[in-house]
Design brief:
The complex is a heterodimer of chains A (116) and B (111). Chain A is mainly beta and 116 residues long. Helix content of chain A is 0%, strand content 52%. With 111 residues, chain B is mainly beta. In chain B, 0% of the residues lie in helices and 58% in strands. Chain B has strands at 3-6, 10-14, 19-26, 32-38, 45-51, 56-59, 62-67, 72-77, 86-93, 99-101, 105-110. In chain B, strands 2, 4, 5, 9, 10 and 11 form a six-stranded mixed beta sheet that branches. In chain B, strands 1-3-8-7-6 form a five-stranded antiparallel beta sheet, with no helix packed on it. Classes of the chains: A mainly beta (116), B mainly beta (111).
Amino acid sequence: KAGVTQTPRYLIKTRGQQVTLSCSPISGHRSVSWYQQTPGQGLQFLFEYFSETQRNKGNFPGRFSGRQFSNSRSEMNVSTLELGDSALYLCASSSRRDRGVYNEQFFGPGTRLTVL
Amino acid sequence: SQKIEQNSEALNIQEGKTATLTCNYTNYSPAYLQWYRQDPGRGPVFLLLIRENEKEKRKERLKVTFDTTLKQSLFHITASQPADSATYLCALDLRDDKIIFGKGTRLHILP
């Protein structure tokens, strides 16, 4: 079974630009979550999508958004990039269906975003 | 305030000894607690999940305990090997449908 894939692996942008990251979950997984990882803050939950609907959201500004397609692939968008958005963005898929139980998450390798 | 803390940023353990990592939390009431391993440049890999009504869980050389009174989980690696060197993250699976990760402990197993 193929794992979670993320594209691109590395990205360099400048302040004010926007970026779109892509995630393909494990086949059969309908839950896709996004995380931001930085040395200072650790791994922080951005949002979760399930069956094309955002089901859960972390404490990030509205510049961070996402969507999920009918094939469960997900994209994350960050608009008006700031220097502090430089981070590793991780996507995780899960077989979780019901709310309230996260189960095991399978993470992709991440996209390393650098904002200059 | 709500906090999740992993005992130290880095831990050095001699090969063959038992490595014990700690995850403490305050003002949370997790339903589950999970442990992940992360290697440099890679995403975290799930290791173990323990439920609030379970005291201990084992998987090969790994053992996790969960004390909801102390608000603490201990993660043990017995007969540690250099290949166990990695960052280990604990995660609280909260009742309000959120998941919170600790910042991790970098474990170095010294040959």
